[in-house]
Amino acid sequence: MKQQSRKIFISSLALIFGGLATKASSIHTMTNEQLIHHVFFWLKNPDSKEDLEKLLEGLRTLSKIETVRKIHIGVPATTEKRDVVESSYAASELLFFEDLAGQKTYQDHPVHQAFVKNCSHLWEKVVVYDVVDV
Amino acid sequence: MKQQSRKIFISSLALIFGGLATKASSIHTMTNEQLIHHVFFWLKNPDSKEDLEKLLEGLRTLSKIETVRKIHIGVPATTEKRDVVESSYAASELLFFEDLAGQKTYQDHPVHQAFVKNCSHLWEKVVVYDVVDV
Fold first, then answer.
1. Which member of A75, A86, A129 has the closest CB to residue B92?
2. Average pLDDT of every residue of chain A
3. Are the CB atoms for A94 and B36 separated by under 8 Å?
4. Which chain A residue lies closest to B89 (C-alpha atoms)?
5. A113: part of which helix (H) or strand (E)?
6. What is the 3-class SS of B96-109, one letter each residue?
């Protein structure tokens, strides 16, 4: 009977600590580490629809990289023009990674390297924002 | 029998066009109209943790606005420093709206207005990017 109580006690401890570990890992992934990588591109030929299409096509290949959790490829919206709104860029690439390591894998990935090699002649300026959720 | 065939024909048409309408509406919502609103804030006192906390607290209230589909409040990540990476901002607000109208509702919403009233003394500069998925 005593041994059975000990077994129950040990099983309970395992359940409690197992639960806490899962919870901690889940909070970690959800809030502390998720990385948002937002890149804005300005074209050398801002009026060239062909260059824009080539750039957008190149950006879409980035979804193949396994650490990219979500991808949004876009262009400036037709929201109200205000002094604070920056709308002179040509294309936007918004990527979500699980963590910093996922972003590093992406930077070094052959698909990303090919994109830079094939498309960097199209752009004049790039601005990158890397954000972590708080 | 002839009338029954006609009924079946009309029902089939309804099914086909109903399906197409649903598909078109779904594509529309998913790709043509979704609006990404990304705002970066630079503080007047960039070294003040208190001011940053106040700003982050204010930004979190924006989730109450009914047209905000997703919200991410963040700070600069500790990714590799590169010339193209802009990491001098203090806070980032990334919002997803279903469409342009959702963003307009947000701009005029009392919760947004209260945030601007209560927090705008904290920041020196704001840069806004409004993006539509393509």
1. A129
2. 84
3. yes
4. A129
5. helix A110-119
6. EECCHHHHHHHHHC
Average of per-residue pLDDT values in chain B: 84
The interaxial angle of helices B110-119 and B49-60, nearest 10 deg, is 170
When pLDDT is averaged across residues A80-101 and rounded to a whole number, the result is: 95
Look up the pTM and report it.
0.77
* Inter-chain touch A134–B56, beta carbons under 8 Å: yes
Q: Minimal CA–CA distance to B103: which of B56, B46, B33? A: B33
Looking at the predicted structure, is the pLDDT value of residue B133 above 70? yes
Question: Are B79 and A100 inside 8 Å of each other by CB?
Answer: yes
Identify the CA nearest to B41 among candidates B107, B113, B106, B119. B119
* pLDDT tens per residue, range B68-112: 999 999 999 988 888 999 999 999 999 999 999 999 999 999 999
Instruction: Identify residue A18 by its one-letter amino acid code.
Output: G
At residue B46, what is the residue type? Answer: P
